[in-house]
Amino acid sequence: MYQWIIFIVVSLIITAVSWKSLRQPGSHGFYRFFAWETILALFVMNMNVWFYKPFAWNQIISWILLVMSFIPLVFGVQSLRTRGKPAEQREGEPSLLAFEKTTALVTSGIYHYIRHPLYSSLFLLTWGIFFKSLSLPAIILAVVATLFLVATARADEAECTRFFGPQYQEYMKTTRMFVPYIF
After folding, report:
1. Burial 4-34 (b: 16+ CB within 10 A, else e)
2. How far apart are alpha carbons 90 and 100 in whole angstroms?
3. For residue 164, what are the CA distances in angstroms to 11, 81, 112, 147, 169?
4. pLDDT tens sequence across 103-157
5. Average pLDDT over residues 41-68
6. Is the pTM of this model over 0.90?
7. Contact (Cβ atoms closer than 8 angstroms) between residue 30 and residue 155
8. What is the pLDDT of residue 90?
9. Mean per-residue pLDDT for 32-46?
10. Is the distance from CB of 115 to CB of 183 less than 8 angstroms?
């Protein structure tokens, strides 16, 4: 019962944060909402086994991925805030979160290697949660979350191309989406 309460309360928070994006189907925030919801469902489903057999091979992989998920998150947000010159209002894109309202294309720091460190962080989080308890429902949720994150990144790239133009298209040729030098 408490799992449903957690799911509902956190879903309400995610909905509040994503409200403007949900009114813009096809925006990166629209797809991100569904990725967040799927990750939340995976978390709630696996929360009872979070510390079960802490030295099992799957738990070790889980903790490595969960800890690693903070690296691209911290460096990505820091780069956007310090180098992206966020503006309070970016015309035509009211659904952007505050730190996403960049007016300068960030291509240094972690963005020199990958275009979407924040979504990479969510990938690591998703698969870290999945490894807590290997099951068919968990793999389905992890794959669905992954597909929503890819859709989020592609929508974000379309938005960045509209805002930054050819400069962003050139940047895309020099970096990978989520994993440096690989993907």
Report:
1. eeebeeebeebeeebeebeeeeebbbbbbbb
2. 9
3. 33, 17, 16, 25, 8
4. 899 999 999 999 999 999 999 999 999 999 999 999 999 999 999 999 999 999 9
5. 96
6. yes
7. yes
8. 67
9. 98
10. no
Alpha helices in the chain (DSSP H): 2-22, 28-46, 57-68, 70-83, 117-130, 136-164, 166-174
Q: Are 167 and 105 in contact (CB under 8 A)?
A: yes
15 Cβ contact list (under 8 Å, min separation 6): 22, 33
Angle at alpha carbon of residue 142, lines to 169 and 152, rounded to 5°: 25
1: which 2 tokens? 């019962």
- Does 27 or 97 have the greater pLDDT score? 27
